[in-house]
């Protein structure tokens, strides 16, 4: 079960459905569902499972579609699980992980903000001379994104720092810190899948700090693979 922050807004994105289909293709025979947290979808889906017996495997594995710690998401999931009376394990977030750094590099390159190859390291030139890895989930998520930022910096050979879209340190403060270090053109690398934030928030912040932004991670294969990895770890932990 892929737990998606936000609501099932048809005007937003079909990313969760695409990820659900891709994960199902990785695991033939596995029933994969995508449920939203803020419109009752996760409650309905867990209720359909019914109460678990005290023995035997749990009825589901819940994979939150977030790249780092997100207390509100985990609180909602734990509450829904308790109400439904199921023993479904809730996995760790998708990151930090080297696959996220790889996916962020791809998204920056697709937007013309970074070179795609890593071969000619000495001749590597990016359209941006500094990158902000933007995440959600508050300070804990920013701390977790620091590892991804370090990995991305090693790929781009420019300063890369994390910032929060919903807390501190925010994008304006981080952008100002980068400017003071000599960065003249910063780019935003959204370390989010997409449904976690309002569609206009990122664009508004990018305009505020005068930075170009790559697209969110969306359905990048790294996201799909990380959902699968979290599921596999949960299987091993519960001896299914």
Describe the structure.
The structure is a single chain. The protein contains eight helices and seven strands. By secondary structure, the protein is of the alpha/beta class. The strands form two sheets. A four-stranded parallel beta sheet has the order 5-4-6-7, sandwiched between helices. Strands 2-1-3 form a three-stranded parallel beta sheet, with helices on both faces. Helix 5 (139-156) links the parallel strand 4 and strand 5. The model is unreliable at 119-124 (pLDDT under 50).
Keywords summarizing the entry:
11% strand; 3-stranded parallel beta sheet; 240 residues; Rossmann fold; alpha/beta; 7 strands
Structure summary, number of beta strands: 7
Rg value:
19 Å
The fraction of residues in strands falls at 5-15%
Helix content: 40-55%
The H/E string reads: EHEHEHHEHEHEHEH
Would you tell me the overall average pLDDT? 88
CATH class group of the largest domain: Alpha Beta
- Strands across the major sheet, in which order? 5-4-6-7
The CATH architecture term of the largest domain is: 3-Layer(aba) Sandwich
- At CATH level 3, the topology of the largest domain is Rossmann fold
Low-pLDDT segments: 119-124
Structure annotation, total helices:
8
- End-to-end separation: 16 Å
Count of structural domains: 2
